[in-house]
Amino acid sequence: MSEMKLFVSDGNPHCLKVLAVAELTGVKCDICHASDDERLVPFLSHPVRPVLLLPCGQHLFKANPICLYFLEVSGRDVCDLTSQWLEWEAAELQPALMQALYQCVLLGKMTEAANTLEGHLTYMEQRLSKGATPFLAAEEATVVDIVLWAALYPLLSNSSFLPDKLQCVARWFEQVNALPVCQTVAQRVQQQKSLESLKRFLQKQPLPPARCRNAPLCNRAEEEDAEREMTDEEIQAAGATWSRGLADRPTPAERRHPILPQEGKRNVLITSALPYVNNVPHLGNIIGCVLSADVFARYGRLRGWNALFVCGTDEYGTATENKAREEGLSPQEICDKYHAVHASIYKWFQIDFDHFGRTTTEKQTEIAQDIFWRLYDRGFLIPDTVDQLHCENCQRFLADRFVEGICPNCRYPEARGDQCDKCGRLINAVELKDPQCKVCKRTPVVRSSAHLFLDLPKLESQLEQWLEQSMSTGNWTSNARHITRSWLRDGLKPRCITRDLRWGTPVPHPDFSGKVFYVWFDAPIGYLSITASYTDEWEKWWKNPEKVELYNFMAKDNVPFHSVVFPCSLLGAQDNYTLVSNLIATEYLNYEDTKFSKSRGVGVFGDMAKDTDIPSDVWRFYLLYLRPEGQDSAFSWADMALKNNSELLNNLGNFINRAGMFASKFFEGRVPQMELQQEDKRLLAQVGFELRQYIQLLDRVRIRDALKCILNISRHGNQYIQVNEPWKKIKGGDEDRLRAGTVTGVSVNVACLLSAMLRPYMPAVSATIREQLCAPANCADAMFQGAGSFVCTLPAGHRIGTISPLFQKLEAEQIESLKRRFGGQQIQSAAPAAATVPASPSATIETSANPERAKQLLQEVAEQGDRVRALKAQKAEKTLITAEVAKLLQLKKQLAAAEGKNPEPSPQKGKKK
Amino acid sequence: MALMELASLEKSLGFKKANKYSTQGNNKTPILQSNKGAPLIGLVTIASHLVQEAAQPELLGRTAEQRAVVRQWLEYRVTQLDGCPKEDIRSILKELNQYLEDKVYLAGSDFTLADILLYYGVHHIMADLSVQEKEQHMNLSRWFDHIQHYPGIRQHLPLVVVLRNRLYTGGHH
Fold first, then answer.
1. Mind listing the pLDDT tens digit for each residue in A56-71?
2. In this protein, which residues make up the domain named GST C-terminal (chain A) (predicted)?
3. A775 and A826 in one domain?
4. Which residues of A touch B28 (CB under 8 A)?
5. Which stretches of A645-677 are DSSP H helices?
6. ipTM summary value
7. What range does the domain containing A721 cover?
8. N or C: at which end does chain B have fewer Cβ atoms within 10 angstroms?
9. Considering only alpha carbons, which residue of chain A is nearest residue B162?
């Protein structure tokens, strides 16, 4: 045992514990006095004492387990009662004790300290007075008494500390204190001027923990479960609101284009990040941008705001040029093709844009060049030269994606001009070894080229001033604030706005002719030009910061361009532009437990959703239910089925269907007479509460959270029907029949409210419910006024239409097959060949199913497999085996392709924008 | 919260009949009423008692040293992790992550009660972490994923997605 080392420090009551127990049990160990500031336990963030270094090299850093260890080493067992006292000491007494010590020793407030500890000392008093033994756990003093004595020693050794009524505690302390072990140890600390060292110990502790007075902070789950109790006033108020009814609210006006800002209205301009044209958007793109913005725009219209929602495809840039080359089309043709793909996907998802435009327009050139000249004239653009790779053969500068070479960091032979796929590091294209033009495969040369830079440092103070104001008055998600601040903290550098490319908005300055604007400069201007394509009076939206509130929706990778770079362009242009006042950024949506990946065919892409036979509304619901609000989330097929079946079918759909069916079956399709009782009014109060929550949340763009309010309402409704059993009461006497009528009438009205609340989320379902209930056109409008009020919109006598089920069950087999279909090997395009395989014509991958070829390949795979096994059995040279294995893999890929499946995914890094 | 944990623990240990619990005080400390004698108070005490009753004492550690390590992490759970203020969460995650760097389980190479209760205690924190944060605490995430997939342990808690492929590299943006 001599290898055990016990590190203690002066004044620390926990050290007193272990020293006394070591004494009690007779366990021998080297006792070392170590400076308090020395970190002995490598993994802990703060130095702690005592620390026991075990012979096996492990550290024990908690006093009570050290004490129990000494006990066990000396041959005694630890019983439940001992464990219980020590747990109480650590978890319950210590937090209060630290505070009491702080009050008493550092602040000199002994009475307050005694009050702080009163509850705990009373507990000990009761245990001692009721117990049959003079000590806490047994007839004689045990480790429990020693530990508690040591903990309380600094306070109780002052005999005037304990109030008179705690006699048993006083007697117990005296007895323990008189034990020889305690005397020995106490004397040792006395000699070390205990009070001074105790003070020093306390000063190093974190400030008195406030948490011992309040409930713990982490029990959120419990709070959420708790039903909110309605007070009598709330219940009565809900009844009064209800009976106001629809009165004679005018029917809301139809949307008339063009929508322009109006005096005296809330003018809300909503944009969603422009999707890049050359790819099909995946579910993550959809939820992050267009779908979120759509829900908010629909909500805004419901609230009677004057809202304009614009978006469009971002069409310029290298990626489009690449894609055009790949598909053998011109960039314009590629844009036309994919713009239509995007538009049809969003149409299927019922994204209700006021205008969905594109960036390759005359307006874009006009506005971008105007902003350019304004920046130029005001001295915010500075020229500089940049070294770039130039392909003499193709006669042009090579954009990052047009060049490949050996990675300067890891020597991977196919590194791209901006990043290496192998080591993931960013690369400056001119640093590539053996660079190659991707088009003609020749070696490019380094040439310097003149470019213009936006002088961000010069605009920084103006930007910060604006940001402070926008963030303090507007709604910025916390990730948006965070990312923006970190950009500013790192300092802004001038940013190049021109490129040596062809497919872009031309730079109008004669010294820079032949160049185009960099996409990051050009694309956000698309918001303005797309609005300009929608209406000639676009400036009423975009040069009207006083009257227009601008909401930008995007995924978080897009934040810096919207919060720093684009605002700088607009601030520098000095033309009274409308800058973003609400920046709403989502986190990422993952697919099952991996990332969406186009190149690997993992995940569901916008164009495939409609082939799943799952309605667009259900897709919308599930994506919004998962919206990565505040944290990443993951799409899962099983979960989608679960949410559809439990929330939509059994909860929401079930309630609305039952309410309607009762009315049509029992009351000839009319809303029955209602006489509200306390219980009905309580439901009205609960529903009203959820409605107000919903409005508060959506006003702050908490889209996912607000959806929960809808589901809460139908849960309340189902419970209400279940308890009141209208299907039984209808068969009873007059009073029972009236009761059945009231419950039915209230329920169909709740269903009507739900149709309004669902409108932003599930527009088709919402319309169906309204149709089934023959709901008046002005009902949503009435209930969404102000903070929201739940009024009776379907009065007694109102005739409803035909009721039919709203949702369908998603069956397990259906989900399993979808999961298989989208699990990975989906896209039929060629995956890049693995690095070890030489790129030869035979290695290209077949792109369409071919049964003949498949048969032949199957044979080849079998033969190649035998070859590999034979080599391995012979323990052949490793390089040889590797080469043969590579061939085998290649064959398998071709086979998969020939069978119409996508080849195995090859490891690839995610794309960065 | 503690009560759900104890119910889950009972199921994991193979108890046929569930015990009845109540709570006391601001901290909602669990109490186990037993007909044999005095009630038992406190999560760690009750959990250790259940383990003994289920005749699986190895879950408390096989040697005195291991038992001490298990007790230490159980105490860490109820004193440091529970009721931990938001601003301390980071340092706790860091500590656990560093501690777990060279260990499969908290008590080294044996699965113990410390793994179960720390898993329960840290679950709500892990569930709130972004993919990137989980990746930054790779050892902790690995341990956590391991425990949540340990047969019979997860019970009432939802699965937290822990990615095995790394998404974030280096410190650049």
1. 888 999 999 999 999 9
2. 75-201
3. no
4. 216, 219
5. 654-666
6. 0.95
7. 637-784
8. C
9. A593
